[in-house]
Amino acid sequence: MKITPDYTVIYNDDDIVVLNKRSGLLIAADRYDEDAPRLDLEAEKEFGKLFAVHRIDKDTSGCVIYAKNPEAHRDLSMQFENREVTKIYHALVLGHPMWESKKVDAKLLVDGDARHRTILNQRYGKVAITDFKNLGNCGPYSWIEARPHTGRTHQIRSHLQSLGISIVCDPLYSGNQHPVLLSEIKKRWNGNADQERPLLSRLALHAYKLTIKHPKTGEQVTFTAPYPKDMDATRKQLSSIFGVDPLA
């Protein structure tokens, strides 16, 4: 039995399966890292052949949908291509944005630099639009909701960077890899500093909700991926100390 499972099942029927994946798994094959662990290969052991219809970053946790047959694959792929899908992400970021909401409409060029990052490029980039909402400040951090209307690689991370905002422990777009430590946010902390384990030490970005039209019934359905343990423990501690809860 795995201590940290690669995924949990949110929904499953004859046409689709919706999974809540852990951080660190690719959705499908990647040309930059052919040997990296893959969610589709693990899930196919349980569900049989799966068809990827969208992607989220390897280091992002949360909601992923796969089609289970060619017809569902075609229908869902068109929904994503035509921007008919609603995607909601939650991120813990460093600092305090001075806005309550912000729309970023800035073209992005994927694989735009030597580190394979996505960069802003108004001349050669593709249309990319993200709506952001500040869900509340808590100590040195803030919770941000992101609604990307397009699906560019690293879109949320790159658009936040364009606003001067870094997601906690982002290995590509943040200069600060410092983990979230309870000893640094709680005034009266009596633990052993030498033995303290971080609350969160990976990219603090989670694909929280996904709304689609079911490929067979046409019914609009929303799937919610609960926070993984590390992100939820961080949420609870920050909520207890600062009174801000992104799920409230």
Short description:
With 248 residues, the chain is an alpha+beta fold. Helices cover 19% and strands 29% of the residues. The protein has a single domain, classed as Pseudouridine synthase (2-Layer Sandwich), CATH 3.30.2350.10.
Structural commentary:
By secondary structure, the protein is α+β, with helices and mostly antiparallel strands. It has a single domain (7-242), classed as Pseudouridine synthase (2-Layer Sandwich). 19% of the residues lie in helices and 29% in strands. Strands 1, 2, 3, 4, 5, 6, 9, 10, 11 and 12 form a ten-stranded mixed beta sheet that branches. Strand 1 (7-12) and strand 2 form a beta hairpin. It is globular and about 55 Å long. This is RluA family pseudouridine synthase.
Secondary structure blueprint with pairings:
Layout: E1 7-12, E2 16-21, H1 39-47, E3 51-52, E4 61-67, H2 70-81, E5 86-94, E6 101-105, E7 108-109, E8 119-120, E9 129-138, E10 141-148, H3 155-162, H4 182-185, E11 205-213, E12 220-224, H5 229-242
Parallel strand pairs: 4-11
Antiparallel strand pairs: 1-2, 2-4, 3-4, 5-10, 5-11, 6-9, 7-8, 9-10, 11-12
